[in-house]
Design a protein that fits this description.
With 314 residues, this protein is α/β, with parallel strands linked by helices. It contains eleven helices and ten strands. The protein is 40% helix and 14% strand.
Length: 314
């Protein structure tokens, strides 16, 4: 059996060849070179296979499967990883050359952490970090209560910003149901398994804006909150035995509010109204009365706003 590398870099992809190659180039340019690069091709029908075949680096391994959706592809990535550390990367994001080096060194020094994140930026503002890493300077090397931070709107993690400790990750995988917000249920369980570290003072990952970004679409949030509420109702949203679930419930509620505002932005008024009434008891229980009181006015303003095309189906 070949020697186990220090880290497995895992990349799920589907019909993203135009962005994938540049993404992989930023992996192959890392200053920390002791890694395996696993690309899980989730049944692409474009020229992804040809482009991957043109990459001669021996660290690259391509795994193909029938199209099963992003959650299943992410889980397959974790199943294929051999190294003690796993670096997540979406096929359209970019890394700074020192990202992997800093994160691997951190996790090898801090095995109590389930993972470590880095400052990151959007492609239209590559030098401006989305969150200020100095906000948690007194808490370095950790970000305390990461679910609470996410619920407050601090975008401290993206898939491509994380390197995970596989021993602490254990059997945790992403939901494989299509059309759900697969990151949400994953984070709810992930951050109960250990502390979250933070390294870097400047952006080390770039999230690329493009027309196919699912995370900008209202239905992504709507299906996400519906799935999370179902898991919560079935007592499957959190790690078994976890006692303090307040931060997790705040995080789910935050996603609910995001879904409502995205639905209004896309003028999906019927869906927004239905979700508002479903979310009411959850948001009220957490004291989000100001949001609940203000939403009807926002809904009415969206309904009266002139628009060029008829609202899409909800």
């Amino acid at each position: 059996m070949s020697r186990v590398p220090r880290v497995s870099v895992v990349v799920p992809t589907y019909n993203g060849s135009s962005l994938l190659v540049e993404t992989l180039e930023t992996v192959l340019a890392q200053t920390m070179e002791d890694f395996e690069l696993i690309v899980v091709d989730d049944g692409s029908t474009d020229d992804t296979r040809d482009r991957l075949a043109a990459i001669s680096d021996p660290r690259l391994r391509v795994v193909t499967q029938e199209n099963r959706g992003i959650g299943a592809a992410r889980s397959r990535c974790l199943d294929e990883a051999r190294a003690p550390l796993v670096a997540l990367l979406d096929h359209d994001d970019l890394w700074h050359p020192k990202k992997l080096e800093l994160q691997v060194e951190f996790l090898e020094k801090h095995p109590e952490c389930v993972g470590v994140t880095v400052p990151w930026s959007y492609s239209d503002r590559p030098d401006q970090p989305v969150f200020d890493p100095h906000t948690w300077s007194k808490d370095r090397p950790y970000i305390p209560r990461p679910l609470r931070r996410l619920a407050e709107g601090h975008l401290i993690v993206m898939s491509s910003s994380l390197v995970l400790n596989r021993a602490r990750l254990g059997a945790l995988r992403y939901p494989s149901i299509r059309g759900t917000m697969e990151d949400g249920p994953f984070y709810l369980r992930l951050f109960s398994k250990g502390a979250l570290g933070l390294v870097g003072d400047t952006p080390l990952m770039i999230y690329r804006h493009h027309a196919n970004n699912a995370s900008h679409q209202a239905l992504y949030f709507l299906r996400g909150i519906e799935f999370l509420r179902k898991l919560e109702e079935q007592d499957e949203a959190f790690e078994p035995g976890e006692v303090d679930r307040r931060d997790g419930r705040e995080y789910i509620a935050f996603i609910g509010r995001m879904a409502l505002m995205r639905l209004l932005a896309e003028r999906r008024l019927k869906s927004a109204l239905g979700l508002y009434f479903r979310e009411w008891p959850h948001q009220a229980k957490l004291g989000r009365l100001k949001f609940l009181a203000g939403f009807p006015a926002a809904w009415l303003a969206a309904a009266l706003r002139p628009h060029r095309a008829q609202e899409g189906s909800s």
